[in-house]
Design brief:
mainly beta; Jelly Rolls; 1 helix; 46% strand; globular
């Protein structure tokens, strides 16, 4: 965000996620200094899925911590080729370096708290 005005215009509102994959995200907090980071609440309604991809950054190393707040009864599984740490509800990974995806959500919504940061920019 380039200014506080941009933050308030974009924060705390549901927005369509990238890749036309059916998920929604709500910006909770972001900063560019002293550490570039963002935090989102992500909602995956039934039918949402994210195809395998990476999230390149122009400089530095991108890290992301995803905490599953509510699981979907069927599907909605996070798949990552090389997570730093993974448990049933906690996923720490490098989205710029590791291909990752989410399987199709069925039977109920999935909610994730996602915090990302870039080191070495």
């Amino acid at each position: 965000m380039s200014s506080l005005h941009d933050y308030f215009r974009n924060a705390l509102r549901w927005r369509r996620g990238r890749q036309d994959s059916g998920y929604d995200k709500m910006l909770l907090l972001t900063a560019a200094w002293p550490l570039r980071f963002d935090s989102y609440l992500i909602r995956y309604p039934p039918g949402a899925e994210i195809p395998p991809h990476t999230d390149p950054v122009s400089r530095g190393r991108h890290y992301r911590l995803n905490i599953v707040l509510k699981r979907s009864p069927i599907g909605g599984e996070f798949i990552c080729s090389a997570p730093i740490f993974a448990s049933a509800r906690i996923k720490l990974f490098r989205p710029d370096a590791c291909e990752h995806s989410v399987t199709r959500v069925e039977g109920g919504s999935r909610y994730v708290l996602s915090v990302g940061w870039v080191l070495g920019h």
